[in-house]
């Protein structure tokens, strides 16, 4: 049994989608971040960075970092085809873009929505947010250019990269402009959210399910 420490409208969406697509047996453990549950001692022992999601594996070890969790689940359930086969050029591209999105897009999302954490006491929150939005647009633009002419991140077809990208795009503060500027990102999001298993998971995350 996998245990997913979970909260709405967080990176837990991508991890739960991967578990569901793999047919894994899992349990959701709600973490009320609005009430500060992620800062409590019992959760800090699991994830000292106070972030959601966290995944406890069946052997009781703990994984954090959503992109790393997706890679590991793909290794554990190769028959589910969550990523291209290990050792292929397309698997290398999957690693490339998952890490790219985690390091650049996800990070910029955090800076935009939690600008006060980055500005510091007396800092310019508006400037932090504007810079974060610029980074979001720039990096999503790089990815959209790589996807030109298709509705999947990888040339080989649909994968967990598309789930991760959909989540990040749906968090964008101006989705209408984003999708207007980048048809490939919109097409990827529409295709991903139309899949029944993913739609069921997304229904628990209102910001992600909204079209």
Written overview of the protein:
The protein is 56% helix and 7% strand. It is of the alpha+beta class and 211 residues long. A hairpin with a 5-residue loop joins strand 3 (54-56) and strand 4. The longest helix is centred in the middle third of the chain and has 25 residues, at 89-113.
What labels describe this entry?
about 55% helix, 4-stranded mixed sheet, alpha+beta, about 210 residues, about 5% strand, 4 strands, 11 helices
How would you summarize this macromolecular structure in one to three sentences?
The protein has helices at residues 12-22, 41-44, 66-76, 89-113, 115-119, 125-146, 160-170, 175-181, 183-194, 196-202, 206-209, and strands at 2-6, 26-30, 54-56, 62-63. By secondary structure, the chain is of the alpha+beta class. Helix 1 (12-22) packs antiparallel against helix 10 (196-202), helix 4 (89-113) packs parallel to helix 7 and helix 8 (175-181) packs across helix 9.
Can you count the helices?
A: 11
Q: How would you characterize the largest beta sheet? A: 4 strands, mixed
What is the total tally of β strands?
4
Ranges with pLDDT <50 over ≥5 residues?
A: none
Order of helices and strands: EHEHEEHHHHHHHHH
First and last CA, distance: 33 Å
Radius of gyration over all CA atoms, rounded: 17 Å
């Amino acid at each position: 049994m996998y245990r997913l420490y979970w909260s709405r409208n967080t990176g837990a969406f991508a991890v739960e989608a991967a578990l569901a697509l793999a047919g894994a047996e899992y349990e959701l453990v709600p973490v009320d971040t609005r009430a500060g549950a992620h800062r409590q001692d019992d959760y800090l022992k699991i994830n000292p960075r106070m972030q959601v999601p966290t995944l406890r594996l069946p052997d009781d070890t703990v994984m954090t970092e959503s992109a790393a969790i997706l890679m590991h689940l793909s290794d554990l359930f190769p028959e589910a085809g969550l990523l291209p086969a290990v050792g292929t050029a397309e698997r290398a591209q999957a690693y490339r873009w998952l890490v790219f999105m985690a390091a650049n897009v996800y990070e910029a999302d955090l800076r935009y929505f939690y600008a006060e954490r980055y500005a510091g006491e007396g800092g310019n929150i508006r400037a932090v947010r504007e810079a974060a939005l610029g980074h979001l647009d720039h990096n999503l633009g790089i990815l959209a250019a790589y996807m030109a002419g298709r509705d999947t991140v990888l040339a080989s077809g649909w994968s967990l990269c598309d789930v991760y990208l959909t989540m990040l795009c749906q968090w964008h503060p101006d989705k209408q402009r984003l999708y207007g500027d980048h048809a490939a990102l919109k097409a990827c999001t529409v295709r991903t959210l139309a899949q029944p298993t993913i739609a069921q998971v997304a229904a628990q995350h209102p910001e992600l399910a909204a079209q």
